[in-house]
Specification:
heterodimer; A: alpha/beta; B: alpha+beta; 5-stranded antiparallel beta sheet
Chain lengths: 198, 406
């Protein structure tokens, strides 16, 4: 496996390259957006980790380019996780706010790889979402949102604290699609996907 | 800052209004009191002359047509004016204890008939002095045999008093409006330096927070690498603890600055579940500290609020209880009318009273386990106020009580 890791800090790149090389696979580092574009053109990757504050090229353009390559991407951000962040126009498949532990990033990357090779679908309202493609029709979804959809399908409890932003993001996406479904909290039942009149 | 500016404008205009209102009320009080005093002086003069002005007469006993030579008073009419007896509109009615009304001693009014005047005077018996029918001043007095009621018309004197009152009211409104306009126009200039200072502070917080996050991640990663090479030891454990403490500080700083940039996004938040989840997650930490945890949380309670803010408030309250609780901590969630009340309590050695200074930045009221930057409750207050809620803290019966109303 080959990972593209782009961040504007050489110490960060060096430390995480050493860890990810051992834990997951070859990690190729990039210090700025131009390097990222160059590397994307020259080599094949399985995963990408991008810092939102990468210099020289806007992170949104980089996200669009890695999406063209079909790479699941983790976006490192200095912003807190909110539904608004998750539903940005050019979104990544996962977000990781600073500061984070190496094992957290490694677990997230493993999860993205697992999802990428999954054949599972989960319902997003009326439409099925393909887990491997991180989308339902034209709607892009993050890994966290797919986990929430799976839990809703299987009747498992959704954590309002940890998974609250994902629930909020899913409701925003359902509203944008003008779906008749939304995720509501029902007394003693927890979060459920319900139709408008319920 | 806009809110502070608005509040300043409101309070400043209110202060101006109250100041002017007091001043003008004083002036008008003096004005009306003077009219009453002048009226009392005249009625006393009449009382001294048995209810009627003595005719002004010359040496031959004939009434003067003009003022005596050498005496010229062209000043304003008042109780001391020699024109008073000629110009005063008044009447005096006499009453006998046995036979009742005897008629008028003097009658110099054209507004009413004499009989009506006597009837009017009879309604004033039993009193001493005062105003009657708005602009008339009266006095009731007795000699050995009869009771007299003198009523004088103070309308002319009161005209100027009412004029002053009208002008005062109009002036008060205009001055208040002028003050408001001035503050609107000059407010920007007054607050510009404060806004600049606030912007710089926010910029510093945001910059400090951003510049700390990445290095903390690097330190965590390198600590991991050291432990992989040489195994975990006391020093790497210490590094992890310090990184964790710094991360919490950074989160607090970041929340204070980023929150102001992003604002609130209300949505349905299941607060009961959120609180239960946070307490459930911290149960082990409470147990390891030997803290008895009480939670009174309804099955379900939702409110329209910013999810991220509520999560941070709840996390901070739980952390606060863990830091400062001695033997117990309690959380209560309830609804009072249209407000949701979240109460967090823990035992404390602090003295009784309000401890709202706990919400000041970089302020800690007592030593916390593990140390703290003193930002947590400052953060909570900002989040609560941004959602139009109220928060206060006090110490009562050995318990620190933090009450949030949303």
């Amino acid at each position: 496996m080959r990972i593209l890791f782009a961040a504007p800090n050489r110490d960060l790149l060096g430390s995480f390259k050493a860890i990810l090389d051992r834990d997951l696979g070859e990690t190729v580092t990039a210090f700025d957006g131009v390097q990222v574009l160059t590397l994307l053109g020259e080599r094949e990757f399985d995963l990408a980790v991008l810092d939102r504050n990468i210099p020289r090229v806007d992170y949104r353009e980089l996200l669009a380019r890695v999406r063209e390559k079909g790479l699941p991407t983790v976006l490192l951000t200095d912003l807190p996780m909110t539904a608004q962040l998750l539903t940005e126009k050019h979104s990544a498949q996962a977000y990781l706010p600073y500061p984070f532990l190496p094992e957290t990033l490694a677990a997230l990357l493993r999860d993205l790889l697992e999802k990428r090779s999954s054949r599972e679908t989960v319902p997003l309202g009326e439409e099925p979402a393909e887990v491997a493609a991180f989308r339902a029709g034209n709607t892009e979804l993050t890994a966290g949102e797919l986990d929430v959809l799976r839990k809703l399908r299987d009747g498992e409890p959704v954590d309002p604290v940890k998974e609250g932003p994902c629930v909020g993001a899913l409701n925003i996406r359902l509203k944008r699609r003008r779906s008749r479904f939304h995720i509501a909290y029902l007394a003693e039942k927890g979060y459920k996907m319900v139709e408008e009149h319920e | 800052m806009n809110r502070a500016e608005k509040r300043f404008r409101i309070y400043a205009v209110l202060a101006l209004f109250l100041l002017l209102a007091v001043l003008l009320a004083l002036i008008n009080c003096v004005s009306f009191t003077k009219a009453a005093e002048d009226g009392d002086k005249v009625t006393q003069m009449l009382a001294d002359q048995h209810g009627a002005f003595a005719a002004v007469s010359g040496a031959g006993g004939e009434p003067w047509a003009f003022a005596p030579q050498g005496r010229r008073n062209m000043g304003p009419m008042g109780p001391d004016s020699p024109e008073l007896s000629a110009s005063m509109r008044y009447f005096t009615a006499a009453f006998d204890q046995e036979s009742g009304a005897l008629g008028t001693v003097a009658f110099h009014l054209s507004a009413i008939a004499e009989e009506e005047a006597v009837e009017w005077a009879s309604t004033l018996l039993g009193r001493t002095t005062g105003w009657t029918r708005g602009t008339y001043r009266y006095r009731v007095y007795t000699d050995e045999e009869l009771t007299y009621v003198t009523v004088i018309d103070q309308g002319r004197e009161l005209i100027s008093a009412y004029r002053i009152l009208r002008i005062s009211a109009i002036g008060l409104v205009l001055a208040t409006l002028a003050g408001w306009l001035f503050l609107r126009l000059a407010g920007r200039r007054i607050f510009a330096p404060l806004e600049e200072a606030d912007r710089k502070q926010q910029g510093f917080l945001a910059g400090a927070e951003k510049n700390l996050k990445l290095p903390l991640t690097v330190i965590s990663a390198n600590t991991e690498l050291i432990e992989r090479r040489s195994g975990p030891d006391e020093q790497t454990a210490s590094i992890r603890r310090q990184v964790k403490a710094l991360s919490e500080l950074v989160e607090g700083l970041g929340g204070l600055s980023l929150f102001r940039q992003e604002g609130v996004c209300p949505e349905q938040v299941q607060l009961a579940d959120m609180l239960r989840s946070a307490l459930g997650g911290a149960a082990e930490r409470f147990a390891s500290k030997g803290l008895r945890l009480e939670a009174n949380i309804p099955g379900t309670l939702a409110l329209e609020a910013d999810r991220e803010s509520m999560k941070r408030i709840v996390d901070e309250l739980v952390d606060n209880a863990l830091r400062y609780g001695r033997t117990w901590a309690a959380f209560r969630l309830s609804r009072e009318g249209d407000r949701v009340i979240l109460l967090a309590e823990n035992d404390t050695d602090l003295p009784e009273g309000s401890v709202d200074q706990a919400f000041d930045r970089f302020t800690t009221l007592e030593n916390a386990d593990g140390g703290t930057a003193g930002l947590g409750l400052a953060y909570v207050r900002e989040l609560v106020l941004a959602q139009h809620g109220r928060v206060n803290a006090q110490v009562q019966d050995g318990a620190f009580r933090l009450r949030i109303a949303l």
